[in-house]
Amino acid sequence: MGRIEDRVALVTGAGSGIGEAVALRFGEEGAVVIATDLHADTAERTARRIRDAGGRAEGHALDVTQEGAAAAVVTAVTADHGTLDILVNNAGAGSDTPPLELDLATWDRMLRTNLTGHFLCIQAALPPMIAAGRGSIISIGSVNGLTGLGEESYSAAKAGLVNLTQNIAIRFGEQGVRANLIAPGTIRTPIWAQRIAERPDAFDRLAGWYPLRRVGEPADVADAALFLASDESRWITGVVLPVDGGLTAGLGRMIADLSG
Ligand code: NDP
């Protein structure tokens, strides 16, 4: 018996990185996984991997920024499976354009992808969850949304997700719906491809900032998402869970300076 056996779980951005790892982990634990991504082929690739491993999954194209798109997928899923128990809002994209060079189109795109898209998915997922009297919504924020780490447009969107999660949690707790946010630190995924191409040692350099002395792997986030999706977290809602190797626990390098 898996930890989320027979739960219907929709994952956005499931064609790559963290979303792919979450979808695969959920598949291992018995969920019916609705793997969605910007492109149908990457979504279906993840779904196929789950099926090949003996799980149940289907792939759907879903651009989270398009009004009505998430609602259409949720309608199809509930028609086929009767319910939607878990939503993992994972789709996202970054921009490290500095503030004085940031044009409005980039700002808007970052907000739309990393905040508005999550809201549209939550809005689509809530009705079947309320009707069933249970649901777990997990949004993938970032440590960038918790403190000043640059990437202003991306980080502002991720900060907005914290408040959105809290409000969803307090509004819909009574109906059995939980909402929590995972704030990952640096995770080794394709989102870093351009920066790694420019600085191949970036992950090694960053590892020194982390008390646990390494950057994260997609599986580190997937295991945290599984906990928040499962009944093991049944009395946890509205929280921000950093999955960051201790990065936001304190200023380790400052302590090293003082004691060195
Ligand atoms: P990846 O780039 O590997 O995966 C992101 C996925 O989201 C891709 O498949 C991408 O598709 C998809 N996507 C992008 N835009 C949309 C959209 N509009 N609708 C649907 N899907 C979309 O990145 P990660 O796995 O690293 O990122 C996953 C989440 O984790 C993001 O929200 C990110 O901000 C967050 N995060 C990542 C960290 C890291 O260090 N990796 C740290 C903190 C947070 P395509 O590839 O075609 O663009």
Question: How is this structure best summarized?
Answer:
With 260 residues, the chain is of the alpha/beta class. The protein is 46% helix and 15% strand. It has a seven-stranded parallel β-sheet, sandwiched between helices.
How do the strands and helices of this protein lay out in sequence?
Layout lengths: L7 E4 L5 H12 L3 E6 L2 H13 L3 E6 L7 H13 L4 E4 L14 H29 L2 E6 L11 H21 L4 E8 L8 H6 L3 H6 L10 H12 L10 E4 L8 H8 L1
Parallel strand pairs: 1-2, 1-4, 2-3, 4-5, 5-6, 6-7
Helix pairs in contact: 1-2, 1-8, 3-4, 4-5
Bound molecules: NADPH dihydro-nicotinamide-adenine-dinucleotide phosphate.
List keywords for this structure.
260 residues, alpha/beta, Rossmann fold, 7-stranded parallel beta sheet, 7 strands, globular, binds NADPH dihydro-nicotinamide-adenine-dinucleotide phosphate
The unique ligands bound to this protein are:
NADPH dihydro-nicotinamide-adenine-dinucleotide phosphate
Just name the CATH architecture. Answer: 3-Layer(aba) Sandwich
Helix content: 40-55%
CATH topology: Rossmann fold
Report the biggest beta sheet as strand number plus sense, adding barrel if it closes.
7 strands, parallel
The domain count comes to 1
Secondary structure class reads alpha/beta
Number of strand elements: 7
